[in-house]
Amino acid sequence: MTSTITSVAAPASADPRPSLARAVAPLVEALVADAVALRLKVTRGPRDVRIVDAGIATPGGLEAGRRIAEICLGGLGRVSLGPGGRFSPWDTLVSVSTSDPVLACLGSQYAGWSLASGDFFALGSGPGRATAAVETLFEELGYRDPAEKVALVLETSVVPPAEVVDEIAKQCAVDPSDITLILTPTSSLAGTVQIVSRVLEVALHKAHAIHFPLDQIVDGIGSAPVSPPSPDFLTAMGRTNDAVLYGGDVQLFVRGPADAAKDLAARLPSLASRDYGRPFAEIFNGYDCDFYKVDPLLFSPARVTVTALDHGLSFTAGGFDPILISRSFGG
């Protein structure tokens, strides 16, 4: 699944962690090669950037979203769709696993690169973030991944303008023609799957926000129900968030003291937020559609189990809200 940038003869200064760009390259090329079967459209956009449309002028679909989610994880994770039986009739779950949750989720999948020009705005996720490394997060991770080809996933319904392509090329030190931008509108099937697939990532992001040592997080798995998309952006966005906030389930495997694992489990679930308990679209509207007014601690899975590997103990906190899931998905 991954290729690394180390070998037996590698110098002591070499970073032993995987190259995200190298790991994800075959996944990106396979997505492009299978575009017709996946109902995607591949074109050349401004500055000859490669555009993969996953739901703007072409339908896309669930399988496209699953594969795009694995690209978001930098080739270091697996994403699957299958029956779960957690929230009938919303029984299909997206499940995520990765053997390197910090690098896959925070170093790649997290939508942390703000890209804007004129009326265009989108958050970039995927392995290209680690090539640009413009976010302070990469200083904390001590990681940068120089690459000759760059892939980014943008949650947007419009093609980025040339100025945005120029910015990506500049920060990544690549030619625009060596950039692949995968566009997944929130209201599309592919967009729905790739957003809900962030269930594990939001747990990692919250763990980071509450200052749990990232180097003690060894492994992780997560799942959440696939929400039905909606042509209305606010409804679609609300449903994908609710899938995680009220239906997401994550297990983290950590090293260190058992008390620290227990505290992490207690603080991670969305239940710990002051904004918990209403559909996300309602919360968002109540804050005048300003994300920065929403309690940032809300963005986390509904239920979390933390296993302390050094002690053989597991701690679970939070819980699912099937009534709210039904209210959100069926509205």
* Topology pattern, helix = H, strand = E: HEEHEEHEEHHEHEHHEHEHHEEH
Largest sheet report: 6 strands, mixed
- The total number of structural domains is 2
Could you say what the CATH architecture of the largest domain is?
A: Roll
Distance between the termini: 39 Å
Name the poorly predicted regions: 1-13
* CATH homologous superfamily annotation of the largest domain: Methenyltetrahydromethanopterin Cyclohydrolase, Chain A, domain 1
Strand % is 15-25%
Provide the CATH topology of the largest domain.
Methenyltetrahydromethanopterin Cyclohydrolase, Chain A, domain 1
Any chance you could write out the topology, listing elements then pairs?
Layout: H1 20-33, E1 41-44, E2 50-53, H2 62-72, E3 77-83, E4 92-98, H3 101-109, E5 113-117, E6 120-125, H4 128-132, H5 137-141, E7 150-154, H6 162-172, E8 179-183, H7 189-196, H8 199-209, E9 217-225, H9 233-245, E10 249-254, H10 258-267, H11 280-286, E11 303-308, E12 313-318, H12 322-330
Parallel strand pairs: 2-8, 7-8, 10-11
Antiparallel strand pairs: 1-2, 3-4, 4-9, 5-6, 6-7, 9-10, 11-12
Structure report:
- With 331 residues, this protein is of the alpha+beta class.
- The protein folds into 2 domains: 16-81 and 102-190, Roll (Methenyltetrahydromethanopterin Cyclohydrolase, Chain A, domain 1), CATH 3.10.340; 198-331, 2-Layer Sandwich (Methenyltetrahydromethanopterin Cyclohydrolase, Chain A, domain 2).
- The chain has helices at 20-33, 62-72, 101-109, 128-132, 137-141, 162-172, 189-196, 199-209, 233-245, 258-267, 280-286, 322-330, and strands at residues 41-44, 50-53, 77-83, 92-98, 113-117, 120-125, 150-154, 179-183, 217-225, 249-254, 303-308, 313-318.
- The chain has a 6-stranded mixed beta sheet, with helices on both faces. It has a 6-stranded mixed beta sheet with strand order 3-4-9-10-11-12.
- A hairpin with a 4-residue loop joins strand 11 (303-308) and strand 12 (313-318).
- The chain starts with 19 loop residues before the first helix and ends with a helix.
